[in-house]
Amino acid sequence: MNRKFILVLLVGFFLLGCDSQLEFTELPIGGNIEAVDKDGHSVSFKSFQEPVILVFFGYTYCPDFCPNTLARIKAAVEPLSDAEKTKFKVVFISVDPVRDSPETTTKYVRFYLPQSIGLSFSGGITNQILKQYAAYVEKTEDGQSFDHSTYIYVLDKNRKTRKLIKSTDSKEVITKSIQVLSSNSI
């Protein structure tokens, strides 16, 4: 094979690899929730004005993943314009309904991001939502912490899950996901 062909082939593979991080498709998990939180307030993602919602599961006593994810989202949205920052909301759903109240979870996430909300539901509703999102949660042997999924679920304006952002994805994937989905360009 000649060098030019190999170079074109390598560039093609590189470009395909880059594009795969920004592919958006309608996923059969997640989406809108309609439930009553522990304070008796009705919650529906469809009532949020923002065209993009970033959903993730965690708990306020989490020693590592949750604060790291919030810090990563914060870093990802810093380059956005003021107008772009109004186009998304972060929704943190507690997997620890015994210790986390809606007020505590909201205070926790707003420490990092003002455009966020924390939700806490009864154990039964939490389990239904976890099943809807195909999220993994298991209490550890010590009974004080949880092993849990580390995905950020990206919902569009119709509250369909369009992307799962892995904990290993760059912060630019978060930034671009917000920009692309909020611009109605797909």
UniProtKB/TrEMBL annotation:
Q: Which UniProt keywords apply?
A: Copper, Disulfide bond, Metal-binding
Which GO molecular function, any one, fits this protein according to its record?
metal ion binding
Using the chain's own numbering, where are the disulfide bonds? 62-66
Per the database record, which ranges form the Thioredoxin domain?
Answer: 15-183
Q: Where does Cu cation bind?
A: 62, 66, 148
Transmembrane: present as a keyword of the record? no
Top-level taxon: Bacteria
In its UniProt entry, what is this protein called? SCO family protein
Per its UniProt record, what PROSITE patterns does this chain match?
PROKAR_LIPOPROTEIN, THIOREDOXIN_2
**Belongs to which family?**
Belongs to the SCO1/2 family.
Provide the species name. Leptospira perdikensis
Q: Which InterPro entries match?
A: SCO1/SenC, Thioredoxin-like_sf, Thioredoxin_domain
